[in-house]
Specification:
- By secondary structure, the chain is an alpha/beta fold.
- The chain has one domain: NAD(P)-binding Rossmann-like Domain (Rossmann fold, 3-Layer(aba) Sandwich).
- Helix content is 36%, strand content 13%.
- A seven-stranded mixed beta sheet has the order 3-2-1-4-5-7-6, sandwiched between helices.
- The chain starts with a helix and ends with a helix.
Length: 215
């Protein structure tokens, strides 16, 4: 069988829609790298990834390909494995969000950690935004949920985001991935079973969106 034959068996004619999708993925760490891998293997290859970080040994418990590229820029390393993607090696901050043109992209995938950048993304591109909240400090992937921002809960990062959005008089909806698992540690430990699950769920939402919204 060829590379995508099993995907085609599942998606049938909808598989052809994947080639036309234009996806922007912000952050390629524990969540973003698995989202990228899943999308690419499924047939979505018109993906632009944005990150400024390099790999070190602390990434190797949860980030795709990190053990092979220590010291390298993440976006450059990942392009070696996913040659059809486009890369932007820049830090995603409020200024970057305000100045970047999101218009060409069908979906914007937020897999970053910075609260201020997440807020800026929500305000600028909420109609096409899928945002990942806290995946660290957790062990149970069955507690992961998907809902709009105002129905989410059980997550300190999400609580902070909702509070700040209300202060800014923001009332729009957008999709978030979050966990209701109770946190019992202060340190920012992480388990790939959860972080990867966030990324795989994000990729599933992308595929469903492409199928449901494409002509």
């Amino acid at each position: 069988m060829a590379r995508h034959d099993r995907v085609k068996l599942l998606l049938r004619d909808d598989f052809n829609k994947l080639a036309d999708a234009n996806i922007l993925l912000l952050g390629v760490g524990g969540v973003g790298s698995f989202c990228l891998d899943s999308l690419y293997r499924t047939g979505v290859t018109n993906i632009t990834i944005v990150d400024y970080d390099t790999y070190d040994d602390t990434n190797q418990n949860r980030q795709m390909w990190s053990e092979l590229h220590e010291g390298e820029f993440k976006v450059e390393a990942l392009q070696k494995h996913y040659p059809e993607i486009k890369i932007i090696n820049e830090r995603i901050n409020e200024t970057w969000v305000q100045e970047f043109d999101f218009e060409p992209y069908d979906l914007v995938l937020d897999a970053i950690d910075c609260t201020r950048s997440k807020l800026a993304l929500a305000q600028k591109c909420y109609p096409k935004l899928i945002s990942s909240f806290g995946s660290a400090k957790r062990l149970d992937p069955t507690k992961i949920k998907v809902d709009d921002i105002w129905k989410s809960g059980g997550d300190k990062l999400g609580k902070k985001i909702r509070y700040e959005l209300r202060k800014r008089k923001f009332k729009k909806k957008y999709t978030v991935i979050y966990s209701t698992e109770e946190i019992n540690i202060k340190e920012k430990g992480s388990f790939m079973g959860v972080t990867a699950s966030f990324g795989l769920i994000m990729s599933s939402l992308v595929i469903k969106h492409i199928i449901e919204t494409s002509d």
